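Reader question, answered in our methods column.
A reader sent in the components of a multi-part assembly and asked whether the whole thing could be modeled at once rather than chain by chain. We filled in our standard form and ran it. Here is what they sent:
COMPLEX SIZE: two components
ENTRIES:
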Amino acid sequence: MTRSRNQALLLILPAVAILAFLTLYPLGRGIALSFFSTEYGFEGAKFVGLRNYQDLFSDRFFTRAARNTVQFTLLATLSELALGLALALMVNRPFPGRSVVIPLLVAPFVLSTMVVTAIWSAWMHYDLGYLNNLLRAMGLDPVPWLFQPDLALYSLVLIDLWQTTPIVFLILLAGLRGIDPEIYEAARMDGASPPFMLLTITLPLLLPHLLLAGLLRSIDSFKIFDKVFALTGGGPGQATETLSMYLYRLGFRFFEIGMASAVAMIMVAIAGGLAAVYALSILRGGRA
Amino acid sequence: MSRLRIAMIWAVTVILFWPILWMVMTSFKPPGEYVSTSISILPHAPSLEHFRQIAADGILGKVMNSLIVTAGAAILSLLAGFPAAYALVRMRLPARLDKAFLVFVLLVKLAPPLVLAIPLYQVLRGVHLLDTLGGLILVYQVYTLPFAIWMLLGFVRDVAPSYEEAAVMDGAGLGYRLVTIVLPIMAPGIAATFILLTILAWNEFAYALLFIQTPSHFTLPTYIATLITEDETFWGRLMAIGLVASLPILTILAFFQRHLVTGLAGGLK
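And here is the structure of the entire assembly that came back:
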């Protein structure tokens, strides 16, 4: 028995070693750094206790970035759930060409975020962008997608909606397949209308999958960095600056290592909270 | 299902796929065509000009960098992840180590990559791997290893223990059983995991941006990012690069769509 236990430890050791070296140790370091004030880089650090955290909460750049991130996360998650549900309901029943339609719908999700960003940077260009060309062709006014502060965050939501709805769609489609068709059969015999069945059968039975997809998308959109970095750089002004972007600017542009580490730890706390809910629901329900 | 409904499904699908179609078409449009106000996406005079130009600009080097990092990260994750997944499913680990490790793996999988960026920068600098492809392969384990373990757990569970029990009777050691019995049975699952790891590493941007400074070491996503600017409208060239960067992934999706579609949903759950 001890021999097999030792063997088990040996098998798990490489993975544990890699993850400890690349996540546990850096996390510990990050926590420590967040209590130091640094002048330009890593050298000459001075212990300041909780002052970095105190400074952050009175820093309007930080509070703005936090607000943008929450706003983006909520808008993106809810719109992706709505569109993903609509698409899943749309292709749930068999029809000719279904095996072609599904991969076409999934395609945006497997593209690199940077390729997605490249496409949409061209589409959202004010003068020559494809979206504004479409609007002009329909006789409408062009829209300053990324230049107008009130609009830029919504434009990012639109891009995220296009790119990541497929994963919500796939999860919900898997959920729909798990619903026993006989339930609908019985309801139809009782004269239930399709909208009534959607509200009283489909949605309640799909609820675990909706929650799972929603949690997954909110955890993921909370991280948003790539699109913001390449498309708006956080602008115009501070309109699209998210926490990841703010952390990047503090740490890798202004070399405020201590301050940036404090932002990182606040993000760990928020993401960790969301992830804990997710982890619990997965471990309780078994792996679907 | 009615004709009208099928027509509607196709309309929605075409609209959602339109941006990708636009990327493909634009990469074949000569410069005068793509900067017009026309909404037609078909190139009138298709040309390979942009592909010739990006080849001359050295796209091949970036493709090679991406290939090396992607293959390296995926293989390293399988090498470390397979034994770990096996041990977690099949063997008794002391004192709830398995549960704790699983929760940890899940938390890492869900954490924002930027929060580890500063200390990881120091770690890489400490082992002299900053600005190298090897360093990138190493830090990508933050993404790929938890993902690999999570996916492989399910596949190990699907291997019936009875196959191994017979070999144990014959006195076969653990290493021998893993390589000659478990691995061959799990081959399809390992292949599916490898494909998803490949997509993950191929598309990664944040760490490639932060830990690579020399342009000749850039991967495709960081290279693309340097070309996205507000004022430039070199879209033909940009979309040609986008197409080159997406082609391997889109081909995989077309060939392995059924496995991939279930894998994408399953692996993320």
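What stands out: Residues 59-90 of chain B form the longest helix (32 residues). Chain B has a mean pLDDT of 87.
Send us your own complexes using the same form.
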